[in-house]
Protein 1
Amino acid sequence: MNISRRQLLVLLPAAAVAWKSVLAGTPEDSPNYTMSDHWWGMLIDIPKCIGCGNCVRACATENDVPDGHFRTWVERYNVSDEDMTNPHVISPDGGKEGFPVAEEDGEKYFFVPKMCNHCVDSPCTQVCPVGATFIAPDGVVLVDPKYCLGCAYCVQACPYGCRYIHPQKEVADKCTLCYHRITKGLTTACCEACPTGARQLVDLKNPKDPIHEFLRTHSVQILKPQMATGAKAFYNGLDGSVR
Amino acid sequence: MSGVEGYMYPNEITLYWSVLIVLYPYITGLVAGAFILASLERVFRVEAVKPTYRLALLTALAFLLVAPLPLVLHLGHPFRSPEMYFTPHDTSAMAMFGYVYMWYLMAVLVFEIWLDYRRDIVLLSQSSKGMLRLIYQVMTLGSSNISERSLVIDEKVGWIVTLIGIPSAFLLHGYVGFIFGSIKANPWWSSPLMPVVFIFSAMVSGIAGVMLLYMALTKLRKEKIDMHCVDTIAMYMFYIFIIDFSLEMLDLIHRIYEADESFRSLNFMAHTKLFFSQIVLQILIGTLVPLLLLFLTQVVKFTEVVRKRIYVLCGSLILISVLAMRWNVVIGGQLFSKSFLGYTTYKMALVTREGLLVSIALTILPLFFLWALVKLLPPWPEKSADQAVAAD
């Protein structure tokens, strides 16, 4: 890559600011963030996922996720030719520490990262009795922990099992798409930690986002389309056996 | 992982709706059922059940006072619950709870009881002494006119309130069913029949509860049980139970015949984790046995003693059956994974906020309220205010 002197003059201060952020542990504020300019989602490229669990660990660290609960997790599917509708699925500790070696049995094995689908018509926000969980104007489904009653109705309403009640805070908790990061121009912790690029944060309102080209050229699906939730976690290479 | 079979999504292993949420529809059901029994006399003029009219109203009130407690105790932040009144979310079924509850409590039940007892309250406020006198005076709400004309107005207004109360009772409990029935993510719950099933099972349980209370209290008071009254209640209970059972069977047969993607999971549960509570307790012992016995009382001329025993047995079995049904809905609906690939186990704690002891306490608490209400507002004709005044 050729970098001109002019570009270098811009990049060096930017690198200095970025390094300062890294040292400080928190990214710089992004006061210019306008929610209505974005419509966030996630692209999950199943053939690229190697089940390393980096994403789960990064999420847990970044968001202080309590043990035994998951804002994201990885499942390993084992589908046999004889019974394709009844796969054998495992996710030991959410796949946080990876998976045991698969048997050499000639059957199909693949990994499926899961997370909140940030649905457009999200059942969880519909049922919340006080509106403590809501869809932000940029399409991210969030929970206001200072307002949530902890009734768990949203947990019951989520078809994907993405919510839990935080054992200490006693409020609903879930993936925020690392809102504290994406509003400052960064990507999510899970995307950043993924060594193969199996997860990519996408902004559907950004015409330059490669997601548009990807959606046009790939066979992309969402989980449980029959639920009509308008899920925004797009899966490439999704096997029909995935629930 | 212990208690888990197959694959559960990792966040599904813990059940978030505990036995307290089982109690919530059970208690509101008893309220709705008791009120429907009271309305039989008031609106539909079924004079035979008159001896239970006031007791049914007081029972409904006693249970209604306790109804929100399981919900509030279950919340992670109980002190935030008033937000449901102040900032309700207009798309949430649960947000309606506060309004439906307050409407039913204040506009229907308390109002109707007050209208019905107003004359007694006024007389008691004149004949009582000390603190009790003050309580009755407050309860008159400053309305001490008990002329014939005013009592006629009370009667007319009371009739209208009961008339409004019937759909309100349906609303109260149908709405509880809707909370579950509208969750499309959960095939065990998601059914338009759910509110209707809840209403009919509520009616059966409430009627059974009041019938048992009437029989027990009459026995305690060493009075004679009005068999015509109990026979009539049992008849209504039988017919409503048939409708309830038919609806539940319709739902079951529909699921079996349709056999959609969730069927394998639900079928597995009915044969394993819910076998005792659903097949044995709810359907066989709690439904088929009382239905058969009640049917026999309709076609065979049993002696009074035998009928009494049958009614006590049936009433008790029905109460157990409806509690089992609530358990199977609430707990059963969380025992399987939404992936339909696995099952978890519910481990009920003993002394925690959502444990067994609290549940037992909440089940008994309405009976204490009822005891206090019966003392304050005697529902028995021979203990009415007239006699009290005459005795003084």
Protein 2
Amino acid sequence: MVKVLFFARLRQQLGTGEISLADFSGSLSALREVLCEQHPDWSAHLQRDDIRMALNQELAESEAVVNAGDEVAFFPPVTGG
Amino acid sequence: MPGMKLHFSRRSPAARGVGMKAVDRIEVRETPLDVAAEYSALQGNSGDGACTLFVGTVRDFNAGSDVCGLALEHYPGMTEKSLQRITCDARDRWSLGRVTIVHRVGPMQINDEIVFVGVTSPHRQAAFAACQYIMDRLKTEAPFWKREAVADQTGSAAERWVEARESDAAEMEKWSAG
């Protein structure tokens, strides 16, 4: 099981802040593809160039490998401070 | 964001946190900041000759609109890790005494303090540079998102997510080049 989180504008666009993926292993970009196949209407939001990704609460690139038990997050560029 | 680099610590995952010192204070809170108390706790008995502070507040104007309020969302867990990482990396670059980062989340009013960054050091150059470095990194990688309430032309309120600024990424790039 992989826990997938969405934040801020992306959370509102997708209509959910958290989902679980069973039996997934592969890269972050592959995980994003799976999500877009399962939810075709998410594609326009999830595939934007500016969407950032985190793996186990660390910023990560699309090649990073996701394993069972990991926590993945997708979110727009940050605007704190 | 095109052209934006991720900043990974040189520390191994197992060693992460070792660079944090007991005198570092990192907090994400929903209640108002007390700048005077934060300064007293930071500088009191630090023994350092220099202390720099940065305080960010809620502005009443952004992107051509009057702002009436602001709410901050964050990623609990990752936020604290991110601020710890930034603090560790600042300690790798400069000789620092104490570091405090306090960031507010949730609903806020105009002029409320959003963020407090304080750094002490034996020398002012290190204190100035580390304070700016911490803010530049926080602005580009700590997972906070602002949502502001704005008055539109008819006077009614609307909410919008604040857009990231290219200029913040550019400021961060300067540290990578150095």
